[in-house]
Amino acid sequence: MRTVSIILLAVVLALFVPVANAQVTNLTIQGSASNFTFTSGSNFSWAFDVPAGDTATCEIWIDVNSNGVIDPGTDHLYMAFLQADGIMDGLNGPPDIDGVTNGHIVFTSPVGIAPGTYVMRFTDHGMGMQVPGICTPLASPAYTISGKVTVPSGQSAANILIEANRQGSYSPNFWHALTNANGDFVVQMTSDTAGGQWRVKINDNPVNAGIMTPNEYMVYPGLNPTGINFTIESPAAKVVGVVFDENGRALPDWMVWLNRNDGGINRSANTYLDGSYQVGVLGVELNGQSWFIQAGNGDQMSPTTMMAQRQLPVLHGGDSLYRSMVVYSVNSQIQGQVRINGVPPGFPVQVGAWNADTAQVSAWADPMTGNFTIGVSNKIFNYQVFAFNMGPNYNQAQVTAHPGDIGVQLNITTTSVDEPAGTAPVSYALEQNYPNPFNPTTGIRFQVPGVSMVKLAVYNILGQEVSTLVNETRQPGIYTVQFDASGLPSGFYFYRMTAGNYTSTKSMVLLK
User: Fold this and answer.
1) Overall fold of domain 238-325
2) Number of Cα atoms under 13 Å in the Cβ half of residue 369
3) pLDDT digits (tens, 9 = 90+) for 216-256
């Protein structure tokens, strides 16, 4: 189900489909200006013209009534993204593969679009062109992935987009399927399953702010997995809003993360066509903690954009908070040095710059010199600069800095931590992993004061569990376990310990 604002926007755009004065001109899809056809997994291409340097919005609609035009009240938005003239990346959409700012945008690549009937529309400044077409299924699928999506009573289970994808430069790197009226789906694939496990997830949550369980599956397509089932629950509370760039343009298909400040819960969603988002939480997750919300392109160290963020109060059942967010472009720098006990660190240190209720970004300090350069926006005046994930025996204070500052000194000191010999811990504790950042192994130390069932697990930035390190009863004591991330990509991870009524979460960085 799409929000009312999505439908209204689509209706407005539909009024401008006549193309005599359209900003998008000369649109062809699969070489046709009137009707396209291609087979799922094959090469899919399009080309169109816009004023040089402009950015177009692409919408792909499922043509539910097969009449060749977009009917927002009947048809279903399959996906939407931005594509800019001359831009190879950075807009959460496909590249303009000629890479030249020449007023001509082109794309071609194998894609595993779900078989079905579609209408594609490209618009610029509210005016554009559309072409209907068909994606035919594979004649002889080599493998299938099947399951069912269960939705709350009264919600439609049809046309929910399921995606199977793999990491790396494979082509195609995803295959899609759409659910039927009962929520059943079958992802059909070729025999190319290189790249190890594939991630299976719902790519478009049909329930506003609904909570999906599980978030994803990791499967081997060659085993033809079945029973890949998802359940979507209605939220007890939610945060809604719109994500804009600094010029006021809504950003479709951008990631939004809702995080509880104790690190125990991390939810995510993508923005809709009009830049709006809805992220919800369950009643059992409302524990009196405050929250914060972020939006970005998935890379906290992006050289082009900062990650937007807003601080939130304690959430209660029935709450629907509105928070808009602005994604600022990087146009300035903060430069400085990290010193540990007066000397360069000797290992990579991640340095962050953030304004608590606006934006954040980070970069790595050079291990040998301690020098760092963080790209920031000069539209934000005050930043707090600090080092991430330094562990309990590193003492530091945040330093206030401004765009254009150089010579910012981030001084860190260390203290020794001595444990009384032969004594049991008096409380639960989870310490910062060491080393951090790490590649590919790191140690995580925790303590247990009494006989307890302990779970220690690692999660990615989307809140998906990637490794269970401990899940058993432990005697009183201090323990260190090793986490081997050889099979995981570089990035931010969280690890959480639960034992009795104790819960603690910390973050770490895998740097390969």
Assistant:
1) Immunoglobulin-like (2.60.40)
2) 9
3) 888 888 889 999 999 999 999 999 999 999 999 888 878 89
